[in-house]
Description:
The protein is an alpha+beta fold. It has two domains: about 5-140, CATH 3.30.1330.10; about 155-305, PurM-like C-terminal domain (Phosphoribosyl-aminoimidazole Synthetase, Chain A, domain 2), CATH 3.90.650. The protein is about 35% helix and about 25% strand. The chain has helices spanning about 5-15, 60-80, 100-115, 165-175, 180-190, 195-200, 215-225, 240-245, 245-255, 270-280; strands spanning about 25, 35, 40-50, 85-95, 120-125, 130-140, 155-160, 205-210, 230-235, 260-265, 285-290, 295-300, 305. Strands 8-10-7-11-9-12-13 form a seven-stranded mixed beta sheet. A hairpin with a 2-residue loop joins strand 12 and strand 13.
Amino acid sequence: xxxxxxxxxxxxxxxxxxxxxxxxxxxxxxxxxxxxxxxxxxxxxxxxxxxxxxxxxxxxxxxxxxxxxxxxxxxxxxxxxxxxxxxxxxxxxxxxxxxxxxxxxxxxxxxxxxxxxxxxxxxxxxxxxxxxxxxxxxxxxxxxxxxxxxxxxxxxxxxxxxxxxxxxxxxxxxxxxxxxxxxxxxxxxxxxxxxxxxxxxxxxxxxxxxxxxxxxxxxxxxxxxxxxxxxxxxxxxxxxxxxxxxxxxxxxxxxxxxxxxxxxxxxxxxxxxxxxxxxxxxxxxxxxxxxxxxxxxxxxxxxxxxxxxxxxxxxxxxxxx
Length: 321
């Protein structure tokens, strides 16, 4: 891609982020960006990528790709209890398709503005279609939430409607069908990271993890990091079970992936406050079980103990987010 094309494409993003921002001294247009982090804050950084054929299909709306490229990083930042500030973006493009980039930028910018994120730089290169985002946020010093501090007796919760995005992914691939697929597709193509709730939960939870590969594998990672185990019960699966049957619904809930929700552990004394905050944000919050000291995790549904859940779904080919 020629230099002229590259600068023209960069200008598409600059148009969305031209307004001055107090904590950005120097943004798009120079060799590097300069930002200001207030004293008493720790920097939190997340990086993730979306690649055509692995994370999205060739016919995917570029707005969805733009939205998801930022959303998956927002979800990681949220899991730390952090507030997002700035992003950099590297786009790999087979050609300088201005229409594709314009629509991608619209999806990216809309979500960025919703959460107060400023795009401060990046790069464009010729190559396989894909986007890599680095997102920077902050927390009060020493206040970042990790995976490794769950305590025996903590209650386990997950936000949102796990399994719906995985169903949307499979519908898009042609592996599942539903009479009314729109909600499932929206959950997959336009995930809504739980940033605002996570910030308010920061001092109330003991551990937290972003649910991107499925509730079962991501909860297992949290428990392993904390050297704990748990006994868990799958909550009512509602529409998933009505549309796809019990076995498929259970599989989607546990290992469907693409949720970008939060799994959290909460001391008993804080449970009521956590539930109230989730209700105030109108975010579903499902209790899964209780943390204990013995390693390992068991799952049951409708009183039936389940075999070890399948491994996390690996998108359209291989790799994970």
